[in-house]
Amino acid sequence: MTPTLYRAAFMHTPFNAFQNEGALHVQQDGGLLVNGGTILASGEFSALRAAHPTARVTELRGGVLLPGFIDTHVHYPQVRIIGGLGRPLLDWLEHVTLPEEARLSDSAYARAVAQDFLHGLRCNGTTTALVFGSHFKGAMDIFFEEAAQTGLRTVAGQVVSDRLLRPELHTTPELAYAEGKALIERWHGVGRARYAVTPRFSLSASEGILEACAALMTEFPDVHFTSHINENVAEVQTVRELFPGHLDYLDTYERAGLLGRRGVLAHSVHTTDRELGQMAAHRCSAAHCPCSNSALGSGLFPLRRHLNAGVHVALGTDVGGGTGFSMLKEGLQAYFMQQLQGRDGLPLTPAHLLYLSTRAGAEALDLHDQIGDFSAGKAFDAVWLRPPAGSTLAAILNHAGSPSETLAALFANGTQADVAQVWVGGEEVYARPADPLRDES
Ligand code: GUN
Ligand code: ZN
């Protein structure tokens, strides 16, 4: 097979940007040599061209090529309720979210929602997502079928709960185990799909259902785990009352044996020092969801405390508590929320924002040997951000002085309209229509 040499201005963060000052790597006239979906060599275009004269060249000049975005917390059934503003978490769940999630018992509805959801990811340049699924097994089979059609990488799981939601969303420990096992056996490791064991949150979980989740993880040790934690003060108080014998919210997952290297806990806004210490000890990650935390008024994420405790942090959109699929917007909101915390906040640089929205997600999912940056050996998962001629962002980029300024402008001003093309494993999964306003309305 003839390799392809992509010629682009590209940026990536092959190292942890919180631990390495030089984590941002930039090639103004770069080349990525790709064969069979894998990056064989990464560097200056002219050197790669000379070394590989027979490679087919794909010109991506203009704009910037970045590693595909990695969203570590996003809800498939919630795409159509984005924008339900003005309610705190528990009120929003009861009146906006759960009625919509109940509609996914209808397979035709679930399929249409899955298609809307997956389109939202790819047209925003997200190539991998840790997806909070549906309560219905049928809707999860549909989700994995549709995800396979798009070519996106997904780590997803059926959501399980057995109390305090609404009866049609409740299951039992026995059924949760049986359906989870069937889904893992059918989908985990098939194509680009992986499975995550997903209790909704301890508020809607008995100890029995957490044990059923743990049984799945013991039987299938390489699956992932995800849930919510410490998002909202009323939620935290309710969990305390429901689990009187437990030390704190984390302890409800910890004692059930659910925490490990492939665990991702969403939000973690009101987390105590003990919990942070234990999250670090178990090497699980926090998914910071700044747009959702702002929209639902959940609070200001203590990023500095997480990092000081040794807890790995990545970013999630939390659609539909969050306000959309754009990881650029999420990065910008993360920056804002650190600014608002004064001395407790951590000033984020453009390199931090790129790291948080790409490589940090790959690390949280334990997939950083395959995706997250443009090093040789990684899959060619990429997003080409190329603002339309005449747009404000195009004007800003034309005058940006340094790569860091360019990156800052992309996060500050970039939107879905700037996503020109997206690849997963070397395959195109999205190309912007010639006239997005006319063709996608
Ligand atoms: N906690 C339990 N369920 C949810 C959900 O759907 N969204 C958010 N943001 N938090 C939750
Ligand atoms: Zn969520």
From TrEMBL:
Pfam families: Amidohydro_1, HUTI_composite_bact
UniProt-listed Enzyme Commission number(s): 3.5.4.3
UniProt pathway annotation: Purine metabolism; guanine degradation; xanthine from guanine: step 1/1
Annotated coiled-coil segments of the chain: none
Source species, domain of life: Bacteria
Reaction catalyzed: guanine + H2O + H(+) = xanthine + NH4(+)
The Aminodeoxyfutalosine deaminase/Imidazolonepropionase-like composite domain, residue ranges: 30-55
Gene3D superfamilies: Metal-dependent hydrolases (3.20.20.140), Urease, subunit C, domain 1 (2.30.40.10)
Co-factor binding details: Binds 1 zinc ion per subunit.
The UniProt record lists the keyword Hydrolase: yes
Cellular component terms (Gene Ontology): cytosol
Alphabetized InterPro entries for the sequence: Amidohydro-rel, Guanine_deaminase, Metal-dep_hydrolase_composite, Metal_Hydrolase, Metallo-dep_hydrolases, MQNX/HUTI_composite_N
SUPFAM superfamilies per record: Composite domain of metallo-dependent hydrolases, Metallo-dependent hydrolases
Amidohydrolase-related domain segment(s): 64-429
One GO BP: guanine catabolic process
Listed GO MF terms: guanine deaminase activity; zinc ion binding
Cofactors that this protein relies on: Zn(2+)
Top enzyme class: hydrolase
Keyword annotations of the record: Hydrolase, Metal-binding, Zinc
Record-stated family: Belongs to the metallo-dependent hydrolases superfamily. ATZ/TRZ family.
Function (record text): Catalyzes the hydrolytic deamination of guanine, producing xanthine and ammonia.
PANTHER family: GUANINE DEAMINASE (PTHR11271:SF6)
Name assigned to this protein: Guanine deaminase
Species of origin: Deinococcus radiopugnans ATCC 19172
